[in-house]
Amino acid sequence: MKSTRMVTVAALALGAALAFTGCAAEATPEAAPANTASAEACSEVRNVTNGALNTLAGDLAADPAGKSDYFGQLTERVDALIGTVENDAADAAFSSFSAALGEAGAYVATVSTEAPAEDAETDPALIAATTAVQDASVEAASNCSAQ
What we know:
Number of strands: 0
Shape: elongated
Helix content: 55-70%
Strand content: under 5%
Largest sheet: none
Order of helices and strands: HHHHHH
Number of domains: 1
Radius of gyration: 16 Å
């Protein structure tokens, strides 16, 4: 049986990329100067999401501790967004995104350093972590604009 890990993670990453289309539109250079914080928040959410999903799609067995530390850095970057956008729902969305990144980092720290078997199924915990990051990032992206 072939492994479906990469296909599953790639599909989740594609979904996240499509969800950010709206956020990218908010972060255009033509945006009014008053929306600079919103544009920067949208850009940071997109960058953090890309880093998280790319890491989850990669070889987690190679340096899980380093990857877990990376998720800690991503969490700090999202925490720094709290209070930067004039939108009541943004802070809650950023907090949820930060929590999802923290959980993904905790999962990555538990990954074995042994390479999975070729026919190994995708770990349900990996799917859950990836889905949680994706869902939380979509919510953060939809709330990063000032309202």
